[in-house]
Design brief:
The complex is a heterodimer of chains A (322) and B (306). Chain A has helices spanning 2-5, 9-19, 24-68, 71-74, 89-120, 123-136, 141-160, 168-192, 196-204, 209-220, 222-238, 241-246, 267-275, 283-321, and strands at residues 79-80, 85-86. Chain A is mostly helical. Chain A has 2 domains: 2-68; 74-321, MetI-like fold (Orthogonal Bundle). In chain A, strands 1-2 form a two-stranded antiparallel ribbon. Chain A is globular. With 306 residues, chain B is α/β, with parallel strands linked by helices. Helix content of chain B is 39%, strand content 21%. Chain B folds into 2 domains: 10-128 and 269-299, Periplasmic binding protein-like II (D-Maltodextrin-Binding Protein, domain 2), CATH 3.40.190; 130-266, D-Maltodextrin-Binding Protein, domain 2 (3-Layer(aba) Sandwich), CATH 3.40.190.10. The longest helix of chain B is centred in the N-terminal third of the chain and has 17 residues, at 2-18. Classes of the chains: A mainly alpha (322), B alpha/beta (306). The interface between A and B is medium-sized, with 35 and 34 residues.
Chain lengths: 322, 306
């Protein structure tokens, strides 16, 4: 570990002693290189250190709540902290329902859009379509939330026959819209990076265009596509503002997919809505950090699972190549 | 900053003896940090700023006051921000602000926390407010009793049919549980003012983060039932008349019905200070209770003090 941090001074001194002459240029370059190396290393290490510090901070603020509230209370089915009901189940289930809903909509649609842009339309159309999709990512989520509240919610109420338009489904639709640009952009890059020789070989073997895309190009770009999907779902889990504005925030227990047509309360919305008000140091305050930690764990697991798949794929393809 | 100059002179005397200017620097730094923790409004003299934080219900009112006061008195400026009654009181307890706006009275535990910080919160009633019950324009229901409202919001009644409306499900709308309006409604409507009552809002209650969220939903959803401060009710929502008991009288919220006490869901709006106010803060509070400021109260849809 220490070798990572300290430059090999012996190496620099030896170089000088060997030549016996003081050469300005090489020494200067060495110093620049050394400095740049250190900066790059510091950036890389700090990325890990920051994540570590975030975990430590979350734990420090969350642990006192676990001392004050029993696990049975945490698993209870009611969240109303003002009166001492601290059940997290409705919030966790709410987040899962909205996120899974968004993934079910966004993943197939994102993949299809990426294939369409990369493989099917002519080059000039790609150059036109892709920036448009990417512009979607630049819309602030509060603006999307406002559109969702005023335009999407009434539609959901009318066409889904739900008592209100502020439902999990409205949240899922909005999140899918927000995840799409990421998924399309990353997946399209991956598909585009597949060598033309793969396509030519497939076509030469008598595969149809569809077979080439589905059996050759998409599997070859699998890693990039998975990364795009992972980033998209990651955005969906963490999104707060838009979700808070359109899901109704009722802390009900979700029992099944039919609850898509009813309001739910997500973990992110709960933290955002309650953090500004809560008395610092109270049980409620520490519980919001417990929610934050659970949220962190969920996205960590999603990332870990996705990268495990990606790494396994690379290793297998490396074996095939060698 | 008088204290800082005093520090510097006493520090210089010491510094000469010890021969270390560092001590001087250190002392003046610590003292200036300590003094900067105090709210600015407690400083007497020219150009002081009063920090005013709290209730979202009152934020527009507080801003209107601050702007008008800036026109009338050039010496004091007031900076206002929202965040909810609880965050205002929390900031007052921490000693970071001069005035905390609250749409509910201070809780016993908040007084205890303040006293632990050697602060005695002082309550000032600055305006009054009615909480209006709102429904969609096409909803035939135009009167409800407090008892019916309690049953509606606790989830006992779930269909408009049972309170004289159409055969439609009821969508309950509420402000987030952090708002003073929410707490007031829980205590005075859902629990009907009974102290030991532990009735809660129905789980299906939609908790919306803003008044705009409530009005947007009431405007477009015929199933909706909502409540909000009178100042936030727009003409495209239908206000329901409320009575304490089924015999009536059913009263619509207005300045008159709040002032004569006939509208049952009315409350006082408060500003809290840490200890008895002095100097510019006291002057500002006196001005708020005066004629000009109370005219602004009526203009913004709240009920002025008589």
């Amino acid at each position: 570990m220490l070798r990572l941090w300290w430059p090999n001074w012996a190496l620099y001194r030896c170089n000088n002693r060997d030549t016996g002459i003081v050469e300005r240029e090489p020494i200067k370059r060495t110093w620049q290189e050394f400095l740049i190396e250190r900066i790059i290393r510091a950036t890389g290490v700090s990325a890990i250190a920051i994540v570590g510090l975030i975990i430590l901070f979350l734990l420090r603020e969350a642990v006192p709540a676990l001392m004050q509230v029993t696990p049975a209370d945490l698993l209870a089915d009611r969240w109303y902290p003002v009166e001492g009901y601290y059940g997290l189940a409705p919030l966790i289930l709410g987040t899962l329902l909205v996120t899974v809903g968004a993934a079910v909509i966004a993943l197939p649609a994102g993949l299809a859009t990426a294939i369409f842009i990369a493989e099917i339309v002519p080059r000039w159309a790609r150059d036109l379509l892709k920036p448009f999709v990417e512009v979607l990512a630049g819309i602030p989520s509060v603006v999307l939330g406002f559109i969702g509240m005023l335009a999407l919610a009434p539609l959901v109420r009318r066409f889904a026959g739900a008592p209100t338009g502020l439902t999990a489904l409205t949240g899922s639709l909005l999140l899918a819209l927000m995840a799409l640009p990421t998924i399309v952009s990353v997946a399209e890059d991956a598909i585009d990076a597949v060598p033309v020789s793969y396509r030519n070989a497939a076509l030469a073997l008598g595969a149809t265009r569809w077979q080439t895309i589905w059996r050759v190009v998409v599997p070859a770009a699998r890693t990039g596509i998975l990364t795009g999907m992972m980033l998209g779902v990651g955005r969906a889990i963490g999104e707060t503002m838009a979700v808070m504005m359109v899901t109704g925030n009722a802390a009900r227990i979700v029992t099944g997919p039919a609850d898509l047509f009813l309001p739910v309360r997500t973990m992110t919305a709960t933290i955002a809505a309650e953090m500004g008000e809560v008395a610092q140091g109270s049980t409620h305050y520490h519980l919001l950090f417990v929610i934050g930690f659970v949220l962190f764990l969920i996205s960590f697991i999603v990332n870990l699972a996705a990268s495990a798949v990606v790494f396994r794929e690379t290793r297998r393809s490396e074996r095939v190549m060698s | 900053m008088n204290t800082e100059t005093i520090t510097r002179t006493s520090g210089a005397a010491r510094g000469a003896r010890l021969g270390t200017p560092c001590v001087l620097l250190f002392l003046s730094l610590t003292l200036s940090i300590l003094t900067s923790c105090q709210p600015a409004g407690t400083d007497s003299g020219h150009g002081s700023t009063i920090q005013n934080v709290g209730s979202d219900t009152m934020v527009n009112l507080a801003l209107a006051w601050a702007e008008e006061y800036a026109v009338q008195s050039s010496e004091t400026s007031v900076s206002v921000s929202g965040g909810g009654s609880g965050s205002g009181i929390a900031a007052l307890i921490n000693g970071t602000i001069d005035l905390a706006n609250a749409s509910r009275s201070i809780k016993a535990e908040e007084i205890a926390a303040a006293e632990a910080n050697s602060i005695t919160p002082v309550e000032h009633i600055v305006a009054r407010d009615a909480i209006a019950i709102v429904v969609h324009m096409d909803n035939p229901v135009d009167r409800l009793t407090i008892h019916q409202l309690s049953d509606l919001y606790s989830g006992v009644i779930t269909n408009w049919r049972d309170v004289g409306g159409a055969d439609r499900p009821i969508v309950l709308l509420s402000r987030e549980s952090n708002s003073g309006t929410h707490v007031f409604f829980l205590e005075h409507v859902v629990r009907r003012g009974i102290k030991l009552d532990e009735t809660l809002f129905s789980r299906d209650t939609l908790l919306l983060p803003s008044s705009e969220g409530i009005s947007a939903e009431v405007r477009q959803n015929p199933n909706a039932l909502g409540y909000d401060g009178l100042g936030y009710v727009t003409p495209d929502q239908k206000v329901v008349a409320v009575a304490l008991d089924p015999a009536g009288p059913f009263v619509l919220p207005s300045v008159d019905s709040v002032n004569d006490g006939s509208y049952p869901i009315a409350r006082d709006l408060y500003i809290y200070t840490a200890d008895e106010p002095v100097g510019p803060v006291a002057a500002y509070l006196r001005w708020i209770r005066g004629h000009d400021a109370q005219a602004l109260v009526a203009e913004l849809g709240f009920v002025p003090l008589q």
